[in-house]
Every structure is written in C-alpha cells, then in structure tokens.
Design brief:
6 helices; 0% strand
Length: 130
C-alpha cells in the first residue's frame, strides 16, 4: 500500500470522530496498545470493553464505540496489511485528529474573550510591581 492510499484510509477513519470532544487522547491510548500487542482483534476487544465501562465518562466511551465500529468496518482492508502499515495508518489518524482539534472541528467550541487572548498580569505586592 502506498502512502497516498494509507493517508486516504486514515482520513476516512478520522472523519468518523468529528463532533467528539478530544478523541485524540483515547485514540492514542488505544493505538499504543495495538502497537505493543500487534493484535488487532485483541485491541478491538479492549476498545469494546472500554466502550461499555462504567468507569469511563461519556465522551471516552463514545470514542471507544467509534473506534470499535470503525475498525470493524475496515477489517477487510487491515487483513491484507502488515502490522507496520497498520501502525502507520493509526499514526496518520492521530495526526488528522490533531488537525481537527487545531481547526476547532472537535466537539466543544471555545469562545474567545472579547478582549482577545489572555495576558499575564504582573504580580502585586512587594516584588517591585505597582
């Protein structure tokens, strides 16, 4: 599989996460687990278990549900690839999720202050500031 095809698959996977708040954190944890085990089925079992875990908040559970459904739908593609190529795809997915967050295409929108960016105020007291 060439790099253009890998990026296309990664963009397709990453597009499923739009609207979720900071999916990159959970994606990176899950893809790191895959890179250690090199077993996609075992990694999917973990994602499925975490998607139903009462110990996680709603957003991480949703992210793991999306991971489970998306990777299961791409299993035919992944069966023909080596673990290095799959890891490469997962790395591009992480990169794409980072760009979504940078563009503000994630879940929560942060409103800017009408006064612009936060500016650090000088300290008050006996340190020479007035």
């Amino acid at each position: 599989m060439n790099v253009d095809e890998i990026i296309k698959v990664a963009e397709d996977i990453a597009s499923k996460f739009k609207g979720l708040n900071r999916p990159k954190n959970e994606w990176n944890k899950w893809s790191e687990y895959y890179s250690r085990t090199k077993d996609l089925n075992k990694s999917l079992e973990l994602a499925n278990m975490l998607s139903n875990s009462p110990m996680l908040k709603d957003n991480p559970q949703k992210v793991y549900k999306v991971i489970t459904s998306t990777i299961k739908s791409k299993m035919t593609t992944f069966k023909n690839l080596s673990s290095e190529e799959i890891s490469q795809i997962f790395g591009f997915v992480s990169w794409k999720l980072t760009s979504f967050e940078a563009k503000g295409e994630g879940g929560k929108k942060v409103e800017k202050s009408p006064r612009g960016n936060f500016r650090r105020q000088p300290r008050r007291g006996d340190r020479g500031y007035r």
